[in-house]
Amino acid sequence: MKKIILIILFLTIPYSLVPSPSHAQQVSLSLSPPLLELFIKPGKAIMIAYSLKNYGDPTFLNLKILPFEAKDNLGNIRIKPEFEGPVRFSLDNADLTLDQPFFLKTNDSQQILLRIRIPENITDGDYYYSLLAETIPPTSSEGIGSARAKATIGSNILVTISNSGNIDIKPKISIFSTRGGFTLGQNVKFYDSSDKIPVVLTVVNKGKNMMKPEGQISLKGNFGETAKYDIISKNILAESERLIEATPSADLSSRIYHPSSLVLSGFFIGKYSLSTQMKFGENSPMIFGSTVFYAFPFKIMGGIILATIIIVFIIKRRKEE
User: Fold this and answer.
1) Do 224 and 295 reside in the same domain of the chain?
2) DSSP-derived secondary structure for 266-304
3) Which of 37, 122, 162, 185 is the most exposed place for a label (fewest CB within 10 A)?
4) Are residues 69 and 124 in the same domain?
5) 56 exposed, middle or buried (CB, 10 Å; 0-12, 13-18, 19+)?
6) How far apart (Å, rounded) are the C-alpha atoms in residues 152 and 63?
7) In this prediction, what percent of the chain has a pLDDT beyond 90?
8) Which range (2-11, 51-60, 106-115) has the least confidence?
9) Are residues 178 and 111 in the same domain?
10) pLDDT in the model for residue 256
11) Inside any domain, residue 52
């Protein structure tokens, strides 16, 4: 009888050691509109309807508003940890409140009625915020948050406050140049004819309001050949700097490590002039920039010289023999 019991235990223990299958929580949210730009006077209020949809597993969510600022010149932002600024936010939903969790099932959507109010006597300028929807991992039986997926999705809110209706735009080109190559003399840059040539264009916004560039980067060669690249219009926040991007013309994967506005590709020879002109909306100043570079087939000439030396050396050796 004891042997039978031992055999039964031996057969059942391995199965009890096999962990039950676990499934990672699927988090997939959408929040629209993803960007809101407001031009408003002090003392006014506006209500915006957002749509939040859950494509993943059922989850608890929390809504909050936090300010942000420019993080770098690539358009990235830094969310501040605490709320600040004069703009006031509230929800007009009967069953929703900021900073109060709510439940959203799979494939369900929630309309968010966000009221934005601008108090009187506010200094003209820009104020930047994000409406954030953050998942809340459920707590375990011990009261500790379980190790399930946590995600945050946001919609940026760019608020321009102006009592007079005027805006303060002060653009300035800080860098307009090519990268790489080698330099001779006073910043005269040379490249091999077959090189890909990165172009860097950055603009500083010294004004109190955001702006969007419109314009082109033009390339002109010494034989009269020309090419134009349209500037991609993106926001430059107040008192910040941003790398301006133009219509892609080559493999731009190098931007990950060496950000550039444009990559020129082709076979270049001689002197080339780069110029740019940009404006920033109606009644805004037009700004200009220019730079030059030179390109010659150094690699081809080097190969020809090397081949010539080798041939001359071989001929001399044969004559000596």
Assistant:
1) yes
2) S---EEEEEEEEEE-STTPPPEEEEEEEEEE-HHHHHHH
3) 185
4) yes
5) middle
6) 10
7) 62
8) 2-11
9) no
10) 47
11) yes
